[in-house]
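Exam revision sheet. Question 4 asks you to relate a sequence to its structure. Input first:
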Amino acid sequence: MEKYTQFRDKSTGISPFLPISRNNINVIGKSTDSKNILTNTVNLIFKSSLFTLRIIIITPFVLLSIILSFTLGYSNYFLKSLNRFILILSGLHSLEYSVQNLKLRNVSAQNFPKKNEMYFLNFSNPLDFLILSIISNTEFIILIPNSKGQLEEFNSFLKFVSKALCGFNDDIKGDPIKYKNLQDKTIYIFGEGTTSNGKSILPFSINQEQFNEFIFNLNNVSKINSLGIRISPTLTTPLETPLAVYIWRILSNWSFNYKVRLNLVDEKKPFETNLTKIRSSLGNNGKIKVLGNELTYMQKIQFIKSYKGPK
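Answer key, structure tokens:
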């Protein structure tokens, strides 16, 4: 991968845009070893059978969830339970919600995001929307900055999925912010503006000046924290991914895990919020590397061109 050296973070060596392959995926025919061919064949049959069974069972529930979201809202208890059920059928093995400086056994619903609170998150895959619908105590709104740092609303599951799969920051447009829509809701901001492979935290697309202007127009945010989200690396979507391919990835995989960590930045004075401090908190005390400011959205565009090669 030497040709991608310029797209690695200088201090950590991490390449945040490089897709992570599943080690157990092999192309039949690559090896002449009969044992390997047999193993690959059995593996493919198993995955195909698992995928077929799951998609038949899950599809009606997904359609029901989409329909109900227009009438009940994503914070509705029944819809939250339905979304959790869909994820379990899809292979979700565990969903761990932890809080900084709090033992896991002491975490309760009181520690989940509430209305009039703002959270910054890292961005890596389409399933984040369903996870937020499960952990939110109230109605929420998702904001994602475009390449110019302007925040846009992504309030439907389908639009969020399109954004997470598009690869490019501005390929999928959100709705312009309507500040009245932000009242009495939990506000989630995916500050990076584009997806990565989950190994690190990208520079935020929104800068301090733009965020200050945004906060100036709000009058109901009680505090600002961050939520670090981690999923099995092979389910991240740093590059453009067709929906059918991603559905195959999920449903043909036996299981996956999700971890959500509340980082107590505890910015109770929104006008004094420091985005550098917020971004650093997503690093979870060094467990996830916070990259320098070189690997911007423009660098991702260049990486994609290099990765795809000449047309």
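Marking note for examiners. The radius of gyration is 20 Å.
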